[in-house]
Automatic annotation (TrEMBL):
Keywords: Signal. It comes from the Bacteria. Residues 1-20 form the signal peptide. This is Lipocalin-like domain-containing protein. It comes from Snuella sedimenti.
Length: 229
């Protein structure tokens, strides 16, 4: 019978030993390492740890405002290779602002709850993400007008450059039918180009300086225009 009593006692002592190894800042519970993310609806639940795991996702908030995210990037196919992305972090009340991150870029987290053991956060759009969403809405307006007519005769179609790369020049080319309201179409492109220029300046966007190849012709395929190079 003594064995059965000793086993849970040993497990309890081991657990207490592990928790006592974690340095917790009572002035700022966010500081530390958070692992084992569990996703529930729109929230992510992390568990506090003494360090990040070698081959598993996690995040770390350090006192010197250094943020570390251990990630496998976009890769979701085993075996996963994890690496660290390093940026900066600061808080504005319950909002965590994460910046200077190569992947997935700047983003915000809203703290739902936090204690000595657990952190629950919810993704919240940053100002840059909100601006980018508005930019994409403008582009969707261009794309919708372009796709409003089925492509059956390529001679009835043309193409035009669109967008504004940070380094200069267009992002690419888009096809349009002569049957649409071309005046409205070019107004939408002009508005998008201006908005992208402003976005690039506001958020210090960089880009490659290569010039997109201009199409040589247009072909119709399954009702859609295909640019030929």
């Amino acid at each position: 019978m003594k064995i059965f009593y000793l086993l849970p006692l040993a497990l309890c002592l081991f657990s207490c030993q592990s928790n006592s190894d974690i340095d917790i800042d009572p002035e700022n519970l966010l500081i530390g390492n958070w692992i084992a993310p569990k996703y529930e609806n729109e929230t992510t639940i992390y568990q506090r740890a003494s360090k990040l795991q070698d081959n598993a996702p996690g995040v770390s908030f350090q006192k010197n405002a250094i943020f570390t995210q251990r990630t496998s990037g976009w890769c979701g196919t085993p075996p996963l290779t994890f690496y660290d992305e390093t940026g900066a972090w600061e808080t504005q009340e319950s909002l965590i602002l994460i910046t200077d991150l190569n992947f997935p870029g700047n983003y915000n987290l809203r703290i739902i709850s936090i204690d000595d053991e657990q952190l629950i956060v919810k993704r919240e759009l940053s100002e840059q993400e909100k601006d980018h969403r508005e930019l994409m809405l403008l582009f969707n307006g261009i794309s919708s007008l372009s796709n409003s007519v089925s492509c059956t005769d390529p001679t009835d179609w043309n193409y035009t450059p669109y967008g504004a790369k940070a380094c200069g020049g267009p992002q690419g080319y888009i096809a349009y039918s002569n049957q649409i309201d071309t005046s409205l179409f070019f107004q939408k492109i002009e508005a998008y180009n201006l908005a992208e220029k402003q976005y690039n300046i506001k958020w210090s966007i960089t880009s490659t300086c290569d010039i997109p190849q201009e199409p040589k012709s247009i072909a119709c395929q399954n009702g859609y225009p295909i640019l030929k190079y």
